[in-house]
Specification:
The chain is mainly beta. Helix content is about 10%, strand content about 35%. The structure holds succinic acid (SIN) and manganese (II) ion (MN).
Length: about 200
């Protein structure tokens, strides 16, 4: 494991924090968990290019009525599965935050999927960082400041990389410009999976 890189104030990156066996174990947990669905944008109903699911007591969800946290899967009505213990341990080891994450959003990017610049701002626990794990194909991740306009920087995130943003970067705009198909053999059918851990309530 390499030492953490400080990307910007509040933004930390651990390259290859998870080895291949740990990546595979997480992938298996994802594929054995709740089924993916394709969210739509509030208002317009335009479909996301990513598919999503969640682990944890609170799942992040978007539909025509807006963004929100829900305790149950929108299609099946079942509670989301528990956050894998390896992710809880990773949260403790990297964030040092005094309470566990309540949401693990799972994003599945097949070739051509992307995510526009946005802020994670549906959480009350603004003092907790956001922790993000990358699995599978490389992605070009963009992160800027707390305003939409303004300088951004681009980082390549590869399988096993772990990124956190908190403190002065907690409301940083961020997104995925594109993935780079064929750069990993981890995800069956190709693509990238992102796991985003967040504390929601105070
Ligand atoms: C997100 O911001 O929800 C996802 C970021 C990523 O895929 O790395
Ligand atoms: Mn986000």
């Amino acid at each position: 494991m390499e030492a953490a890189l400080k990307i910007a104030p509040g933004v930390m990156l651990w390259r290859e924090r998870l080895d291949r066996a740990a990546q595979k174990a997480l992938l298996d947990a994802v594929l054995g968990a709740a089924e993916f669905y394709r969210p739509v944008m509030p208002g317009s109903g335009a479909p996301f290019s990513v598919e999503e699911t969640n682990f944890g007591p609170l799942g992040w969800y978007s539909d025509r009525d807006g963004y929100r946290y829900t305790a149950t899967h929108p299609k099946t009505g079942a509670p989301w599965p528990a956050i894998p213990t390896a992710l809880l341990a990773l949260w403790d080891a990297t964030t040092g935050y005094g309470a566990p994450p309540q949401c693990c959003l799972v994003n599945l990017y097949r070739a051509g999927a992307r995510m526009g610049l946005h802020q994670d701002r549906d959480e009350q626990a603004a003092d907790a960082p956001v922790l993000s794990v990358s699995l599978g194909d490389d992605a070009l991740f963009r992160i800027g400041g707390a305003t939409r306009r303004g300088p951004t920087q681009s980082l390549k995130l590869s399988s096993g990389d772990v990124l956190s943003f908190g403190g002065p970067a907690r409301l940083a705009f961020h997104g995925i410009d594109r993935i780079v198909p064929g750069t990993s053999t981890l995800v069956p059918g190709g693509g990238r999976i992102n796991l985003t851990l967040r504390r929601v309530t105070k």
